Amino acid sequence: MKREIIDPKSLELNDKVVAIKRVSKTVKGGRTMRFQALVVVGDGNGHVGAGIGKAAEVPEAIRKGKEAAIKNIVSVPLDKNSSVPHDFTGIFGSATVLLKRAPEGTGVIAGGPARAVIELAGIKNIRTKALGSNNKVNCVLATIEGLKSMKTPEQYAALRGKTVGEILG
Asked: What is the pLDDT of residue 97?
């Protein structure tokens, strides 16, 4: 199945810095300190992306992370009550994020890293649980992996050559 190509210039993107950490590299003269920023961008309407930037200063790391996130934007299917179409598990590295569909009025029930991705994707009703690793980078990437792997009932029906009514029962 082909993925749609998303033009980031046509989207009105918001960004959120999920994590900033200081990293160091030991060289002959001592340690060189740098900053790593994990940034998530989204339009609140089914498009979200994440990126990592690394630089000597924090603002530069955030800028680089935002640029990387814009390059990695994916499309997320939403159902009529601003939730995900079905339950799914996203896996990246040793991090596993369980994404469960929720009825209207539930709100966003998610931990910090997954919450940033879900809010910027425009999902209003969902339950999530991070399993395995609690590494912020891997949790964000596992959430995005789970969201981009989801399909709508129409897409499943087209794959199987059936109608939506037959798929949903």
From this structure: 95
In this predicted structure, the answer to whether residue 2 has a pLDDT above a threshold of 70 is no
Does residue 3 have a pLDDT over 60? no
Average pLDDT rounded to a whole number, residues 129-149? 94
> Under 8 Å CB-to-CB from 68, ≥6 apart: which residues?
39, 51, 52, 53
State pTM to two decimals. 0.90
